[in-house]
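User: Design a sequence. Structure:
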């Protein structure tokens, strides 16, 4: 185990720790982000279990009455980020954004619970979180799958966590920009603009926010009212995996009703996932629900599908697909196929490698018996840190560190990977 790297990673977490939550990184992201917190808790759990539970509890303290857990909690005002609370207009005592993010908490809580050394504390805290996580999952299927297909749609690219992926380009072109109030971006003063989304994309992000706000953030209306409704295989895989992990956890805690409901969500989801398989590309792809068509975009969203229990033959195909990507990049797994014309190795989700996604893909592949590829991905994740530090994301060919530095969830993944790696036989 590389203790020096673990120590450095812990220092990054300490720097971004605000006591009861972490910020993704100082400056660029000065608030609490939803899936960042869930994944960062995995890092804390290796040396401070109480702090890990607190990270997740703080997030759920801001759950909306309808069950949604928002994507940003604006704990303390900071005008270094756009769009701030005044743009979201969600009218909450402690302001939050109005959209959500990948629901990875069910997975994280189960993992932290399973490994807990302090079993009594874990049981008490997991038991309290269980119904709240379940309420969030029910919220998804109720509001984001109104037709009961088994798969949920995101209504804003930011919900996917893969903000400017090539996957959204075609559908995003249908989102208007008229009526967007003039604004000043803040991200481009903290990070290189060439590593960030474009101004044109930002106008559309904000148009959607203004549109949802004009509907009073009423989640029963937003899905049908959004011109952007996308079924993302990665997002759905995270939800399905969290439902299935919550089912196991609920079973262990004797919460049989939550267990049965969660199991049913997961089974229906897994069956429906196959409709997102694309034979030509040999991976899963997004389905544009507003246009009623598959999106032929070879992105990492379709590989992240392996995070849930897809059939073993599909997991094997995903591993083979990653092996093909490895012919054109040095570090796995690029967020977009480097041979595709839209690929951009420095620009956010259009090419760079992200350690959190690596971790989830690798975890799913291990569960599916694809240990070789999983190991390759873990090794690449650590090599990136050794070459380039704890960045937000990395160029998959040159390892150039991009976006923000001293990044919380990147550091948390390093702690997690190094603490759980198998020692060589
Ligand atoms: C960016 C990422 C998103 C992440 C957030 C905070 O918006 O695309 O996935 O949650 O930054 O790190």
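Assistant: Done.
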């Amino acid at each position: 185990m590389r203790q020096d790297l673990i120590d450095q990673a812990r220092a990054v977490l300490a720097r971004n720790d605000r006591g009861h939550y972490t910020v993704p990184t100082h400056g660029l992201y000065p608030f609490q982000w939803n899936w960042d917190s869930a994944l960062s808790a995995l890092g804390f759990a290796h040396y401070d279990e109480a702090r890990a539970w607190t990270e997740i509890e703080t997030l759920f303290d801001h759950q909306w009455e309808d069950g949604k857990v928002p994507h940003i909690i604006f704990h303390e005002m900071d005008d270094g980020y756009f769009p701030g609370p005044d743009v979201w207009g969600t009218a909450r005592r402690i302001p939050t954004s109005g959209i959500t993010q990948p629901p990875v908490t069910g997975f994280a809580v189960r993992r932290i619970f399973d490994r807990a050394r302090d079993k009594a504390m874990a049981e008490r805290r997991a038991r309290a979180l269980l119904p709240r996580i379940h309420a969030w999952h029910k919220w998804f299927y109720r509001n984001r799958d109104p037709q009961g297909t088994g798969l949920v749609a995101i209504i804003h690219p930011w919900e996917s966590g893969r903000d400017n992926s090539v996957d959204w380009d075609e559908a995003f072109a249908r989102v208007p920009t008229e009526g967007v109030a003039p604004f000043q971006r803040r991200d481009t003063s903290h990070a290189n603009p060439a590593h960030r989304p474009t101004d044109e994309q930002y106008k559309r992000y904000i148009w959607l926010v203004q549109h949802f706000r004009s509907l009073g953030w009423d989640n029963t209306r937003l899905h049908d009212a959004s011109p952007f409704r996308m079924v993302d295989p990665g997002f759905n895989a995270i939800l399905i995996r969290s439902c299935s992990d919550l089912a196991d956890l609920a079973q262990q805690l004797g919460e049989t009703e939550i267990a049965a409901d969660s199991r049913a969500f997961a089974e229906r989801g897994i069956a429906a996932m196959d409709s997102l398989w694309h034979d030509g590309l040999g991976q899963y792809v997004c389905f544009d629900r507003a246009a009623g068509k598959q999106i032929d975009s070879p992105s990492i969203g379709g590989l992240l599908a392996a995070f849930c229990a897809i059939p073993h033959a599909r997991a094997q195909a995903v591993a083979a697909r990653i092996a093909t990507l490895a012919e054109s990049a040095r570090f796995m797994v690029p967020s977009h196929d480097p041979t595709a014309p839209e690929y951009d190795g420095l620009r956010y989700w259009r090419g760079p490698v992200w350690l959190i996604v690596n971790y989830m893909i690798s975890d799913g592949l291990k569960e599916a018996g694809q240990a070789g590829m999983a190991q390759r991905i873990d090794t690449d994740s650590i090599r990136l840190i050794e070459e380039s530090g704890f960045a937000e994301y990395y160029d998959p060919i040159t390892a150039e560190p991009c976006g923000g530095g001293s990044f919380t969830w990147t550091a948390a993944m390093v702690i997690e990977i190094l603490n759980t790696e198998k020692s060589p036989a």
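The chain is about 50% helix and 5% strand. Strands lie at 32-33, 72-73, 230-231, 277-278, 283-284, 287-288, 293-294, 393-394, 401-402.
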